[in-house]
Amino acid sequence: MVKDKNSAERQKRSRDKKRSLGLVSVQVWVPAWGKKAIHDLEAHLCNRTTTSLTKDVQSMTKISTNNLMSQLLATEEAKNGEITITKLDGATPIIQAVVQDVNEFPIMITVGEEQILMITQLWGIDEIIDGKADELNAVLLRANLPVPLSSFSIMGDRYVIFGALSINTNVTEITEEIFTLAENVIDALEFCKEYLRS
């Protein structure tokens, strides 16, 4: 009987993959009625090992500022000039993302232990028309829910808009958030212009 070459190769690849996960082959003798129990136990043990290894790899490859910088520079959006990515060195390293046509509002990105924070400054307190600050604040508080992926806040004497992402967010979603934040900046300027000095 000729053995199927493809089947043999699949079995070899399967065995090699299991070995690479640290699994070992064990031969046991059981009564016929115990085969299913052994099969279920094997599946359970292999699944636990794979899950544990995946968690270990994720914790070892936790994203850093430099790693995120490299990933962003490799995106199509950075390569074709839709966004410009630069690193600002300091006590806390910051990635600056500038979206084409919204370049007067750079987005500052910091990578923390648990989250990635993106923030951009909008306007200063001194740019608000006299007597309109309370009205503007009420408008921004109401806008916090309908504005996707972003919230408004005040830092020092500047109004800002920001978004926070999980540290495990992939670069595609991070890039989408950069563009969403830039669009939200334009929207915020539009619906707040009646409260700001021209």
CATH architecture title of the largest domain: 2-Layer Sandwich
**What is the percentage of strand-forming residues?**
15-25%
- Would you identify the regions where 5 or more consecutive residues have pLDDT less than 50? 53-60
Structural class: alpha+beta
Describe the fold and architecture.
The chain is an alpha+beta fold and 198 residues long. It has two domains: 5-60; 65-195, Yope Regulator, Chain: A, CATH 3.30.1460.10. Helix content is 44%, strand content 21%. The protein has six helices and six strands. It has a six-stranded antiparallel beta sheet with strand order 1-2-3-4-6-5. The model is unreliable at 53-60 (pLDDT under 50).
